[in-house]
Amino acid sequence: MLKPKQIRPGYIPRYFDVAVNLCDDMFKGKYRDNEHHDSDSNSVLKRARLLNVDRILLTGSSYQESRWSIDEARRINAIGDLTQYPQLYTTVGVHPCTVLEFEPDPESHLDKIRRLIKENLQDGTIRAFGEIGLDYDRLHHTPMEKQKLYFEMQLKLATEFNLPLFLHMRNALDDFLSILLPFIDGSRADGLVLKNKNVLVHSFTGTEQDLERILQQPSFFISVNGCSLKTEENCAVAAKIPLDRLMIETDAPWCEIRRTHSSYNNLTKCPNEFYPFEYDIPQELLPKTTAKKGPKLALNEFLPIPLVKSDKLASFLQSEDSKKLVDPMVKSRNEPCLVGQIAEIMAKLKKTEPQKIIDSCYQNSLRWLDLS
């Protein structure tokens, strides 16, 4: 089992993953329309909590996903055991790639979202309006004009609530800001203005010029994940994000850090300050050294967690070996337990002490969401 190894006396990292798509089919065992295993979302959340992720924001990309995320967050939070599970919060909104769900009756669909928020706002599960925005890299999903139309329509709805914004922006900054900023500064002709001006531009992949323009807005934050850290240019831009505006996320099950990413070489094996853990693995389960027999157990490259292919998870969980181990991760599926890797990369890119990066990102997340 996992046991903590003290790296910095008296310090244990705390992580807030501000973007997890727990509603994705992969966490329900479905991969490209193939059923490989039962839902393992409980195990995913337990692994995250085991590795010091104590808060997670579940993101919704559609009305149905937003509704599902609210129900799932309530189910987990009702267990009432924050030693086993992270505290879960949710967003409500429609992603630019799925805004065609507003048609053929946009006002009726918008009213469904309005009611969903009103009916579920009181207990604090819903913490942000989103994921909304513009994505000009994927116009094959939704034409540009439709994206702009429904971005503005959802911002109008957001003015009815005191919720921060969780925003998506890909290669669209000019239109993104021209639509958004009048809701911030109150310059719209109809007088509509956001009550809560805290904004997160999540999964940031823009240029240095994009970053500078976003940072001109004092209430705007930026979060990064594996997709934000692919190239040398990405890493150079990410390094310039001020510490008081930075958050970290996985965007799981997407946006993992891969060997081909420029940021990959910044990662180290645990135990380290980001993952102060060792793992007692029964000797008989350790990988064999002889090529003839091959490895009996595969582990995550950096963490002492078993790793299996999606179509092998069900059989592994039924084996005797599984009873001696933490439930395995699925190969090539990102998880919130890996958010500490983003912190490690950012600490090295910014040449900042690990504790300072970890604590700043956590506190920024609380500040953006008006949490204590």
UniProtKB/TrEMBL annotation:
Q: Which domain of life is it from?
A: Eukaryota
UniProt-listed InterPro entries? DNase_TatD-rel_CS (IPR018228), Metal_Hydrolase (IPR032466), TatD-like (IPR001130), TatD-type_Hydrolase (IPR050891)
Q: Which residues form a coiled coil?
A: none
Protein's recorded name = 3'--&gt5' exonuclease and endonuclease with a possible role in apoptosis
Which controlled-vocabulary keywords does the entry list? Answer: Endonuclease, Exonuclease, Hydrolase, Metal-binding, Nuclease
**What biological-process GO terms show up in the record?**
apoptotic DNA fragmentation; cellular response to oxidative stress
Q: Which family does it belong to?
A: Belongs to the metallo-dependent hydrolases superfamily. TatD-type hydrolase family.
Give this protein's Gene Ontology molecular function annotations: 3'-5'-DNA exonuclease activity; endonuclease activity; metal ion binding
User: Could you state one GO cellular component term attached to this entry?
Assistant: cytosol
